[in-house]
Amino acid sequence: MPVDLHAHTTASDGSLSPTQLVARAKEVGLSAIGVTDHDTIGGWDEALRAGAELGIHIAAGVELSTSYEGGRFHLLGYYIHPGSDLMQTLARIQAARADRNVEIFANLRELGLPLEEDEVRAIAGPDAQLGRPHFARAMIARGYVATTQEAFDRYLADGKPAYATKAVLTPQDAIRGIHEAGGVSVWAHPPLNRNFSLDELTDKVGEWRDWGLDGLETFYSRYTPEEAEWARAMCARFDLLESGGSDFHGASKPDIQVGVTHTGGPVPDAVLDAIKARRSPKLFSMPTKRAALPSCSQCRQSVPPCDAPGARRR
Ligand SMILES: [Zn+2]
Ligand SMILES: [Zn+2]
């Protein structure tokens, strides 16, 4: 049965509890669901219990916020060990996120769009970490904007006036941390970083692969056909694992459904099998660097194919 390897719960900015998410996965006929909350594994325990009860495999993961070269990038880490050092990193990111929320409240106040913490907290629920989708919903409730999209486009998106920076990791840190925790690293939805062209992102895929990146999302609810095509080509060219899912959040992104990607359907289970096979059998000792790809005899680039005349792979 197919799978969906990217979804959020109330442990971050999703609107379904882990139990509800797993039940939804069962309803729509999936055999596995990725629980990949932003910078926390707080949803794992409940999801694993529900999964055991309903016979749904939990691809236990985390979606790490990173920043690099003026861009912000999400790195998914699957099957990381909950006793690893990465958990301290997550705690640091949480602290940075709390500071950032204080900044967003201040920015909104300055823009004449005040929100009280209580009203945003009421939307998020008692246990969730506050995130931008919660701010957006509070702004809709106040009549500041009509939709979440408008809240992001005008105020909350990267570089907009209420935005505040958060990431404390680079993608390289994230990949290393995920590997040291025995996990598998997947670059989430690369083409959604729209301030970079696909050509620029291609260069980054090559660079990050040299850092040990294991895979990238080739299935995603919001990919255009061109983006999906690009992602598949990247996996073929750089020998990366395919991954993906819906990025289901529930109420804040009501157009996204569990088990529905750009194809209109879920992710084949072979994708999950390949990720599971990459998990480190020996925790904490996985080398960060993978074996180098064959390099071109002309341009010395480590990545085939190369157009240099007379080039041959070696
Ligand atoms: Zn993401
Ligand atoms: Zn996500």
Structural description of this entry:
With 314 residues, the protein is α/β, with parallel strands linked by helices. It has a domain at 3-93 and 167-278: Metal-dependent hydrolases (TIM Barrel), CATH 3.20.20. Helices cover 38% and strands 14% of the residues. It is built from 10 helices and 7 strands. A 7-stranded mixed sheet has the order 1-2-3-4-5-6-7. Helix 8 (198-210) runs parallel beside helix 9 (225-238). It is globular. The chain starts with a strand and ends in a 36-residue tail after the last helix. The model is unreliable at 284-294 and 300-314 (pLDDT under 50).
How is the topology of this model organized?
Blueprint (H helix, E strand, L loop, with lengths): L2 E2 L13 H10 L4 E7 L5 H11 L2 E12 L2 E8 L7 H25 L6 H8 L7 H10 L6 H9 L14 H10 L3 E4 L10 H13 L4 E6 L4 H14 L2 E5 L23 H10 L36
Parallel strand pairs: 1-2, 2-3, 5-6, 6-7
Antiparallel strand pairs: 3-4, 4-5
Helix pairs in contact: 1-2, 4-5, 5-6, 8-9
One zinc ion binds next to loops.
Entry summary:
With 314 residues, this protein is α/β, with parallel strands linked by helices. It is 38% helix and 14% strand.
